[in-house]
Amino acid sequence: MQDLFRQFSHRVSQATGTPWAFILAFSTIIVWGITGPLFDFSDTWQLVINTGTTIVTFLMVFLIQNTQNRDAKAMHLKLDELLRGVQGARTGLVDLEDLTDEELQTLQSQFESMREHAARGENVTGEVEEMEEEIEEVQEHHPASPAHTA
Q1: Distance CA 96, CA 90 (A)
Q2: pTM for the full predicted model
Q3: Which of 13, 26, 58, 100 is most buried, taking the most CB atoms under 10 A from its CB?
């Protein structure tokens, strides 16, 4: 069942992301608008487009989310493999997706600070080492992190 849904959501996301899908949707709206005078712009006429678009939107949310989840997971795995395969790479950054929003914001601020210092030609080695220690400390306290599950 899961594989069938994966294949279906992949095909639908591929099809709906085309110019032809947009043209079809746009044409539907144009035809609906043109038929307004034929139905005296009745409540039923309005209900048809409202119901149709609501149903399509509701279903597309799940299909798109499935596709995005798979894409994000694949991207994480590819990046993890690259980090683990490059000698000297800081593998402490591999599982950042498990951190809280506040922890990610703190890391982003630290990276911005390092970038500013590096742009001024300052040595950021100490900051990098300090950040790595903080990342390891945070990950040790996270139940989902590899350091905690290993």
Answers
A1: 12
A2: 0.60
A3: 13
